[in-house]
Write a structure and sequence with these properties.
2 domains, 10% strand, elongated, 245 residues, single chain, four-stranded antiparallel beta sheet
């Protein structure tokens, strides 16, 4: 699953799953059903009125009103995204929405830019250009998104599972106090590489991680590489937890 990281205005980095091409096509089809239902309903109403009333003046009024009824269909996506926080009815049904990659809320200008490009990409070219751009780009962006600096993501933040998650234990004795020499970045890298080494049974990588960790901490150990690294991870977790108390 492709993801994208967005730094919020509070300088917090949040990772989201990018809406797939399938999600966007399904959202478009749902919106198309909304179009058809809206158009079909008003066509019946005004078609009946036009057939029953042959007054030229009344026909003109009904024709103007009918035009006003169908006009929202042209601006459907623009109006929905502006007033529904980056979602159309189809997007809401598929739990996807438009966001600004800068972390700020998309402006009316951003939505307008996406809508203008939509006329070319989707309305005039039947979505072919949009699908090709999405497939090549890999960041959930069609041409309109590239121009507006936006993307379409799943509405729930993507939380990547942390390898070797550790739970705090009471009366735990830290084996290596030297773990305080490690940083959060060091620990994240150790977890990631240990997981990779065990997954692919890469003994060489496991040995390199262990040696590098020992050098950084300035310790020596006769424990097997995997046991040593797991102990370091657990020690670090408890040392950090105690520092917050």
């Amino acid at each position: 699953m492709n993801t994208i990281k967005v730094k919020t205005t509070q300088n917090i980095e949040v990772e989201y799953a990018i809406a797939s091409i399938g999600d966007r096509i399904l959202a478009y089809l749902i919106d198309l059903c909304v179009y058809l239902a809206w158009g079909f309903t008003w066509s019946i109403v005004f078609g009946t009125l036009l057939r029953q009333n042959y007054n030229p003046e009344a026909r003109t009024i009904i024709t103007v009103v009918l035009t006003c009824i169908f006009l929202p269909l042209l601006f459907y996506h623009l109006l929905c995204e502006i007033f529904m926080n980056g979602q159309s009815i189809g997007k809401k049904a598929r739990d996807i929405k438009v966001i600004k990659l800068s972390g700020s809320a998309p402006s009316v200008g951003d939505y307008l830019l996406r809508w203008i490009f939509r006329l070319l990409e989707i309305t005039m070219c039947y979505g072919v250009i949009s699908i090709i751009t999405l497939a090549i780009n890999g960041k959930g962006q069609r041409l309109g998104d590239l121009a507006a600096g936006t993307s379409v993501i799943r509405t729930r933040a993507y939380r990547r599972k942390i390898p070797f998650e550790v739970r705090t234990e009471e009366n735990y004795t830290v084996t290596y106090p030297e773990v305080n020499l490690l940083t959060d970045s060091d620990m994240a890298l150790i977890r990631k590489l240990l997981y990779k080494a065990l997954t692919y049974q890469n003994e060489t990588l496991l040995s390199r991680i262990t040696e590098r960790t020992k050098v950084t901490m300035g310790v020596d150990s006769d424990l097997p590489d995997e046991v040593f690294l797991r102990t370091v991870i657990k020690d670090y977790h408890h040392v950090m937890a105690e520092s917050l108390i």
